[in-house]
Design a protein that fits this description.
The complex is a heterodimer of chains A (113) and B (115).
Chain A lengths: L3 E3 L3 E5 L4 E3 L1 E3 L5 E8 L6 E6 L5 E3 L5 E5 L4 E6 L8 E9 L6 E2 L3 E6 L1
Chain B lengths: L4 E3 L2 E4 L5 E6 L6 E7 L6 E7 L2 E5 L7 E4 L6 E5 L8 E8 L9 E2 L3 E5 L1
Parallel strand pairs in B: 2-11
Antiparallel strand pairs in B: 1-3, 3-8, 4-5, 4-9, 5-6, 7-8, 9-10, 9-11
């Protein structure tokens, strides 16, 4: 079964610091990759997605992610975080042709003003 | 609001009682999903409908759980004889039919607390 690993479950950083969240998946076939964000008290929202093409994907709010197939990774980055980026971030994967989203455990990110 | 709507937002119930949650997907989406999220974990897949047909069920969905989508629009998730381990956030999502390039829109969830 596919699995998704996210490390460093809790991340605390100051405003303007750079953020990188790691995501690794275990499936060797064609995958679709997603990062979702959940702000306090809100529903899961799509940050960005990768299906094919340019492995560097740009999403909303200045986030980007890079798909490295050889490393089975899809790491999320933001060069300069803001207090409003405080949220939980989830990496998720679907296998091509399968509708089931497999999520990682999430990263709780706290940005200190 | 044309997003995915879930009711109720919160439910507190005594152990052994039955509970039912409702999900109204985006109207043009014919795929509907239920997920469960516990503290410190990512959402876990429970079941999936395409129109009114329930096409896939997770092993997490014990025989106390049943989901329906009778007219291919809204869906209900019922838990019978609730247990404390059922306490979680129950998420609904919908997506349009298409290639693997579709993606989900999630609702705000129903938080269940079994006491």
């Amino acid at each position: 079964a596919q699995s998704v690993s996210q490390h460093n479950h809790h991340v605390i950083l100051s405003e303007a610091a750079s953020l990188e969240l790691g995501c690794n998946y275990s499936y060797g076939g064609t995958v679709n990759l997603f990062w979702y964000v959940q702000y306090p008290g809100q529903h899961l929202q799509l940050l960005l997605k990768y299906f094919s093409g340019d492995p560097l994907v740009k999403g909303i709010k200045g986030f980007e992610a890079e798909f490295i197939k050889s490393k089975f990774s899809f790491n999320l980055r933001k060069p300069s975080v803001q207090w409003s980026d405080t949220a939980e971030y989830f990496c998720a994967v679907t296998i091509y042709g399968n509708n089931r989203l497999a999520f990682g455990k999430g990263n709780q990110v706290v940005v200190i003003p | 609001d044309t997003g995915v709507s879930q009711n109720p937002r919160h439910k507190i119930t005594k152990r052994g009682q039955n509970v039912t949650f409702r999900c109204d997907p985006i109207s043009e989406h014919n795929r509907l999903y239920w997920y469960r999220q516990t503290l410190g974990q990512g959402p876990e897949f429970l079941t999936y409908f395409q129109n009114e047909a329930q096409l896939e069920k997770s092993r997490l969905l014990s025989d106390r759980f049943s989901a329906e989508r009778p007219k291919g629009s809204f869906s209900t998730l019922e838990i019978q004889r609730t247990e404390q381990g059922d306490s979680a956030m129950y998420l609904c999502a919908s997506s349009p039919e298409g290639t693997a390039k579709d993606y989900y829109t999630f609702g705000s969830g129903t938080r269940l607390t079994v006491v």
